[in-house]
Amino acid sequence: MxxxxxxxxxxFVLVGCRSGERIIARxxxxxxxxxxxxxxxxxxxxxxxxRELLQQKLLEREAQKRGITxxxxxxxxxxxxxxxxxxxxxxxxxxxxxxxxxxxxxMAEVTEAEAKGYYEQNKSQFQQPERVRLREIxxxxxxxxEAIWEAVKLRSGENFADLARHFSINPATxxxxxxxxxxxxxxxxxxxxxxxxxxxxxEFSRPVEIDGEWVILKLEARFPAEQKTFEQxxxxxxxxxxxxxxxxxxxxxxNKLLRQARVQILExxxxxxx
Length: 274
Hints:
By secondary structure, the protein is an alpha+beta fold. It contains eleven helices and eight strands. It has two domains: 32-126 and 230-274, Orthogonal Bundle (Triger factor/SurA peptide-binding fold); 130-224, Chitinase A, domain 3. Helix 3 (72-82) crosses helix 4.
C-alpha cells in the first residue's frame, strides 16, 4: 500500500511539473518544452561540459596556488586581438586561455643538461653560413653596364660607390652607394653566387645579366662559415625548448590535472558517460 501511494505521489508530481512546463517551440500542433530541451542537452553534452568545468576549476586552483591572475584589461585586449565579441562566454574562454598560457609558462622549465643535449643533437641549426658584404650597380642595358664597368676599371673600383649613386637604377641601394649590406651567400641569385665565390675582397665583377637587367658587384668583405658554440646560443636554445614545453603543457595540463584529482561523479547519467 505504501509503495502504491509513493508511486502515485511520484506520478502526480511529474504530471504537475510537466503541466506547468514552459513551451519554447510549436510545430504543427507538436510542442517542445524547456525541460525537454534541457534534458536533451544534458544527455548529449552533459559529460563534456562537466569535464570542461572541472578542468576550469582545477586550473583556477593551480593558478591561485602559484599567485597567477588574469586581469580584465588583459581579457579585453585579447578579445580585440582575436576580434571576438565582448560577451560573458567569450570573456570566460579568453580568461581560461590566458590563465593556461601563464600557468604553462610558469611550469615549463629547461635544465642546462637538456639545453646542452639539444645543442649537441642539432648543431647544424646553429651554423653561421658564409656571408659577404657587397656593393652593386644595376643598369638597364648591357651597353650602359659595359660603359660603367670601364669607368670602374679606370679607378680600380675606388669610384664604385659614387658611380652607384649616380647611375644605378636600384632605388633600394642607390642612395647607399650600392651597399647591399651583409648577406648569406646562399641567399644570392644563383648567377651572383657563382660570381661571388670566385671573387677576392676588393675586386669587382664584370656585368652579370639578371632578369633583363645588368649587375656589377664589388666584394667589400667576406665572412667564412662558422659553428656557433653552445655558450653563444645558450639563451636561444633555452628559449626555444621552453616554448616547446609551453605548447605541450597547454595541450596536456587540463587533462593531467584532472587525472591527478580525485573525481567523484554523483549524477548517474553523467557517470555512465564519463
